[in-house]
Structure formats: structure tokens, C-alpha cells
Design brief:
The protein is α+β, with helices and mostly antiparallel strands. 43% of the residues lie in helices and 27% in strands. It is built from seven helices and five strands. Strands 1, 2, 3, 4 and 5 form a five-stranded antiparallel sheet that branches. It is elongated and about 60 Å long. The N and C termini lie far apart (113 Å).
């Protein structure tokens, strides 16, 4: 056997030896292999899930007031009596009621808004509208929109389940006041004025009646 052939056989044997040695050390990989995932202890995983589901803050409350505030605790107490109560839905309803009540008052259509008012608020509205009519004044108003809505305060009587929530509202509208002859004595038709109000709504939590009544108005 000639020398070149012997050298070739020796090199082939060395190559086969190295391949087998590498396989024994590295193992065999097929295709794309994802890095191994470290498994968390079952007890730690269960504890974390419990904290997220059962121990986390109520976002329906903390989206509107600080988590550790007295208002947040009051709202939580309301929810314990009536779990279906939603702070976010309440504020949306307050926005709608604000437009309805403001425009009913401005235009003197008190019968339309009476179901949303407490007896005291309704009587005060009647007094203002009656005085306006006695002077021969009329108001022409158009509602533009609610610019801001925020929850300002909350009170809850655990004995009676009566809840009161105060909302700050900033509305925009156009308004003019005309005298008996139809002349404008206040305001301009095309000027938008900003109106700031602080309104308190009340309701008995857990009752069959879902309606909140306006019980106080402060500018």
C-alpha cells in the first residue's frame, strides 16, 4: 500500500474519532431549540396569581381617586353593599344628568327634570325660574359639552345605606338673557361661557331604585 493512501486512511480515522467525541460531549440538536424555561415553584406562582386577582386595587375606584384615600375607602364600602355599583358608570351618568338638568333649568322646563331632583333642589329651582318670569326675562341657551368631570367627595351611612357623591363639573354653553321686548341684556349668542359646578347626588345603596337624585348644587 502506497504512502499517500496510508496517510489518507489515518486522517479519516482521526476525523471519525473527533466527530464521535464531540457528539458524546455536546449531544445532538435538531432544528431550532428554544432556551430552557425555568419553572417557578408552584407555591410562588399560586401566591402571585392570588395577589393579582384578589389582593389588587379596584381600578374602578383608583382610576378616579387615590388608592389609600378616605374617599376610596368610602366607595369600597358602597360596593360591598352593592357589588354591581360602578364609579365609572356613575360619573358617565352624572355627565348626562348635568347637561339635562342645566338645560332644563336655563330654559325653565322644570317638569322634565323634576324626577332627577330632590324636593329641596326642585323647590329652589322653582323659586329662581319664577323670579325670572316675574321680571319678564327669558334665557336662550345651547349646551356645548362637558369639559371636565371629577369625583370630589363621597359619604356613606352604613346604618341607612345612604350614599352621597359630590362631582365637580365644568360645562360649556352659550347663553343670552332677553327682556320683555326681546332685547339682549346679558350674554352674546356666539360666545361660549364656561360654567363650573359642584353637585352632590344621593341614593340608597342596594335599593331597587337605581336613580341618583341631585341633592345639592354649589358653584
Amino acid at each position: 500500500m502506497n504512502s499517500p493512501l496510508i496517510q489518507l486512511l489515518v486522517l479519516a480515522g482521526i476525523a471519525i474519532f473527533l466527530i464521535l467525541r464531540l457528539k458524546s460531549v455536546l449531544g445532538t440538536r435538531e432544528g431550532f431549540e428554544k432556551p430552557p424555561v425555568q419553572q417557578q415553584p408552584e407555591s410562588a406562582k399560586s401566591r402571585r396569581d392570588f395577589e393579582v386577582i384578589d389582593g389588587g386595587p379596584d381600578r374602578d375606584i383608583t382610576d378616579h381617586v387615590p388608592e389609600d384615600s378616605e374617599i376610596a375607602q368610602t366607595l369600597a364600602a358602597m360596593k360591598r353593599v352593592e357589588p354591581s355599583f360602578s364609579v365609572s358608570e356613575f360619573l358617565q351618568g352624572a355627565r348626562g344628568a348635568y347637561e339635562l338638568i342645566v338645560m332644563g333649568f336655563e330654559r325653565g322646563n322644570l317638569n322634565e327634570i323634576q324626577p332627577f331632583l330632590s324636593e329641596e333642589v326642585f323647590d329652589s329651582f322653582v323659586s329662581v325660574v319664577s323670579a325670572r318670569e316675574d321680571q319678564g326675562l327669558t334665557i336662550e341657551a345651547e349646551f356645548v359639552g362637558v369639559r371636565e368631570t371629577s369625583l370630589a367627595d363621597a359619604h356613606f351611612d352604613k346604618d341607612s345605606n345612604r350614599a352621597e357623591i359630590t362631582v365637580r363639573l365644568v360645562g360649556e354653553l352659550t347663553s343670552v338673557v332677553r327682556d320683555r321686548g326681546g332685547d339682549i341684556i346679558e350674554g352674546t349668542p356666539n360666545t361660549i361661557k364656561r360654567q363650573k359646578d359642584s353637585w352632590t347626588f344621593a341614593r340608597e345603596m342596594g335599593s331597587d331604585d337605581p336613580n341618583w337624585l341631585l341633592v345639592a348644587t354649589d358653584a
